Input
Amino acid sequence: MTPPEAPPPNIVYILADDFGWNDLACEGSTFYESPNIDRIDLM
Output
């Protein structure tokens, strides 16, 4: 018997040019709106 294969890892890579970590709404920024990234942050 061979052991079952492990499922591949779930990896999300977000490339945002000239975007600092504190520019996200989920990090407290009120200047930029980032609802899609905020939704990922809640997962």
About this structure: The helical segments are 35-41.
